[in-house]
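## Example pair
The file below holds two records. Each record gives the amino-acid sequence first, followed by its structure token line.
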Amino acid sequence: MFTLACGAKSPAEPTASATTPPATLEDAPVATPPPPAPAPVVTPASEAAHTLAQTRTFGQPLPVDPLVHFVPITDAASALSKFHAALRRLAEGSDPDGKVRVAIYGSSSVAVDRYPGYLRGYLQQRFGDGGIGFVAAAPLWRWHRHNEVVLQASKGWTIEHVQKKNLREGGHLGLIGAAQSASRKRVTTTIAGGAPESFTRYGDTDRVDLHYLAHPKGGKFVLELGDRKLGTFDTRASTARPIVHTPKLPSGDAPLPPLRVRVVGDGEVRLLGATLERDTPGVVVDTLGIGGTRAANMLAWDEPSWSEALAARAPDLFVLAYGANECMDLDEPIETYRANLVRVLERFAAAAPQASCLLVGPVDFPEKDEAGAWIPRARLDEIIAAQREIAKDRGCGYFDTRAVMGGVGAMDTWVVAQLAKADHLHMTKLGYLQFGRVLVDALMRDYDGPPAPSIAAGP
């Protein structure tokens, strides 16, 4: 109980005052603790898979770096439910074809196969090695690399994809969106085993599918496996259509020799890539990146042949990792960008209705001002906002790469820490591996379940 002083107002007429203390301790406001920072779910299986992935790619466990932040995938529980269900069927031995496939599309950050390779190694350690997956038949650019194979080509190949602006009528570019063409005699390309850091050995491949285009000006090529000739193939046809040839491979335990295509020289041979898989159950990750490209470039590909190629792969998860290059397209209204991205996702939904969907956002990508200082790029905010909204509308998950880096302005610190390159666009090998580690944890967070509640010790 308290007594009113002379002239004071009754409690029914309180006077608001920022300096008036609470009448009793019970009336004092209680500070609301901040929500706990999101964290990955750690299980013995995930730790073992990370250990393998990091040892293979880095030679040792990745260092803990405060610049690399864990960020959960938005709407992961619903957006990734089909993918997680496929993993559970695979783990239980009830998956119909014994494979869970992931298709990762993107620009140069995907094309170098650093973080897709990390994802491949992690998932294959946990759920089985289903094979290497899709690879180009010849290098698509001078620095082309894949984590599991080496591509060696002679001179004489012409590379065609939308970003090079040399797309021929029809847009027959296969699964990845790029064709490798040659017509001169004795031009060759070879797919062989990769570096020692490879997760799945090329030599363990049990099945090879060679993708090429039959067309009116087609020529012949010879397919060789080591020093063994597998056959001569004529690609001439009255109309353009993609062909998939599955050669009979030698039986036995001997490692698979290099696969070579040799052009005969009587017409143009147009290759669209190859898929390499094992007979054992497991995960397959297709890396489908092209340097400098945009998501909207897919709209120039021949849709029926691409849809057929994607449907044949039957991915359980497709990933689109674009946005940084679109930040430089200042002459394109953001409404056009949004409309194109929706059209791309509609194509995927039609071709792979069984698949989960994930959009991976662009890096923190600043620009230089007139004084040469790096400043935030205004269009990047628009791109990220559009991706977030469209992902939600289309039932896709969204992974915020900029938040992983630390938010707006984080790229400078990543460059200084040698996690990103001086161009303020691409990560270093270490940066990509750290990013892959966080992306894997985000993908698996709902699969592995919420962290177990702590149990207080008894008296």
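Second record, same layout:
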Amino acid sequence: MSHIVITGQQIGLLGGPLYTTYKVLGAVHYAKQITGEALYWLETNDADFNEINHIDYLDSGGKLRNLTWDIDSRGFSCGLIEVDDSLVSLLESFFSSLRPTEFTPALREMALSCYVPGRTLGEASSRLASALFGRFNIRLFTPADRKFREFSRAFLLQEAERTPEGEQCNLFCMIGKKREALFKKGGIFCLRNGRAVDLSFYDLVPNVKTRNVCQDAYFNTHTYIAGPGEIKYIADLDPVYRFHEVTKATVKPRMSLTLVEPKVKRLIKKTGLSLSEVLEGDSADLIRKVLKDKSGFDFKETLQRAEILTGAYLGKLESLGLDVNDIKRLLRKEVKKTCGKRRTLEKEKLANLLESLHYLPDSLKPYGRKQERVFNIFYYMNLFGGTGFIDWLYRNYDFDIDKLEI
């Protein structure tokens, strides 16, 4: 049997955040290194709809946009929520507001052929994953797989039985389209509302503390490609692995990087900033620095120097018995006013350049967050080669880099 390299992620609109793509390509890349088989676990059981119901991107004008699929999920597992006309309209808005390129029509067609009203989000996500990654010979898997559910049931029943009295079990009970939390009370199992549940009548699904155990037992996983959050919680699962006598897979961190667009590189060169300065500062910081460097005028420094010079001079007058308080107030007011006029003038001279600076943090760390946690792969495919951009990412895949210039 070949070594199986797995990665997994909760399903999200248009493939979810960029780091999902990095995880999938990481599994393919590492499986090839060890002559193994790559598998992508599309987590359809998760019910945190608000985490996956939106798309964030830069529109054709370079402005940060957010589109949210605003429906009542009714607490359903996300994979069982049905695609509706409002989601299709949202996707249409996304593609129509992107900068139009030769790749836009094909990407739009790809997305809308997957997200068809009446299909579940799980089905749509699986079709999209196949369209994006199928050529890499990666196996797609969802925990709705009947054989997996039957296999993992014995593990989950054991986990339920060993739950301490009054505690929540490390599994969920599927009732209709909802995964319900289970509690052990008085030797029986019940829902959060106290309703008793006979586990023999329902499907059971793992929670965060049992998913990897069931996964590794079922697939005999060789390596799991994980994000930083996963690495932390998987490290704490040793007692669960020991109880079920399952061998834990080796955990390998995924690639984590910032993509640097050509436009960003041009702006950085034009402004004289460094990439690290952009990544560390916000728009206000960048504007202050460029204004100072390009104009030679530093508002804050000028005010401070004026305060020191006038303070020293007026201090001497004050030592002679002269009341200089009114003079101090007047001078501060006039110096601040004059410096403000000068700053406004310099800003006007550099208006276009300073306005363009907003694009840098919006592109590299939107909303002050890591780029890979906000944007999805479609934004970049639209600009840089369609699905060929994923091929380019794979060719340049490196677990150890943190920046990649497009």
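Notes on the second record: Residues 164-206 form one domain. The chain has 17 helices and 13 strands.
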